[in-house]
Amino acid sequence: MDTDTLFARITDYASRPDPYPLYAELRAAGPVVRQAGDTCLIGGYHEIAALLHDPRMSADPRTRGEGTARLPFLRLDDPEHHRQRTLAMRPFGPPHSPHRVDGMRDEIHGITRELLASFESGRRIDIVDDFAYPLPVTVICRLLGVPREDEPLFRAWSDAIVASADVRPDEDATQTDKAGEQARMEMGGYLLNLAEQRRGHPSDDMLSAFVNEPDPALRLTQEELAETAVLLLIAGHETTVNLITNGVLTLLRRPEQLDHLRREPELMPRAVEELLRFEPPVHMRERIPHADIDVAGTTIPRGTSVILVLGSGNRDPKRFHEPDRFDPTRTDNQHLGFGSGIHLCYGAPLARLEAQAALGALLPHLGTARLAQDPPPYRQNAMLRGPRHLPLDL
């Protein structure tokens, strides 16, 4: 196969159900695989991990003269990234942490039970629309303080923003990018207005914590608040939807492992970590070196678009024993499911809690469930990979 077309073949929608043979081809082609358009791919675990920790690698598209002035801290570099991330994390940390995340445990289980109450034997359900989407979006909306009646507003906004965030080689994405920017502005305006309603009238939610921060030095600007609130809402549910849905699909394809977990449900935390390795919700990240950088004897020039294929690194046999086998008892599992380095997913504790609760509650139902379609239809996005629908017959 022509390695010059690997990126195009990986991101081709036809590859969405199973990109892993292409990832194996990527790893075999070398530590650095150059592509057209001043792009290179990295698929080995150790090389990806090293680059995620390398301060010469930038997450900011403006390093190449691209992007707008308005960026969430996810796309910024230190020290500005550290400043905004620290401020955004304050409502998650002491003294809020027991209430904000750990304190959500009972509520998450309650929301899960409410959703499962509608599941009836002999009925077809869609795991995405009926369960995996409403659970995390309800949780993050409650954390932020979004009124329940407004939750449906976010689906169209989220879909547009996620579509614009995909990695796309040699594609005219102007229309998609415009739609994403419009959705980002509308969602940011809505959340900023909601936050302003709480100014001087504090309530028990994160938007209120942001606008009622007593120390001026620890407050986000209005623009930063809008970007951070949008990021929290999108990141707070999009990847978790994929994690839960990929988990259900993986278990239904492997009845012996499903039975194992039903017999030993205490293995669920370890099983979620294995899912983050085996079928991660995020498959790629782009970085741009702001200086020439050497990777295994190959020089990557500054300004190059470097695609770190996390999904490939998670299946690297140089790092994981039998990497293509799903093993919920795996112990040596320092996966890249949440990234690594300074941009390690700040919502990881909440995502783990939601996935453990969701899959644990689903176990009794999955023993008699059958996939109505395999492979299911996938989302267009190659970076945030997961089924768009997952119909099951109970």
Describe this structure in words.
The protein has one domain: Cytochrome P450 (Cytochrome p450). Helix content is 46%, strand content 9%. The protein contains 17 helices and ten strands. It has a five-stranded mixed sheet, sandwiched between helices. A hairpin with a 3-residue loop joins strand 1 and strand 2. Helix 13 runs parallel beside helix 17. The longest helix has 25 residues, at 174-198. It is globular and about 55 Å long.
The biggest beta sheet is recorded as: 5 strands, mixed
Sequence of strands across the biggest β-sheet: 1-2-8-5-3
Low-confidence stretches: none
Number of domains: 1
The share of residues in helices is 40-55%
Q: How confident is the prediction overall: mean pLDDT?
A: 90
Structural class: alpha+beta
Fourth CATH level, the homologous superfamily: Cytochrome P450
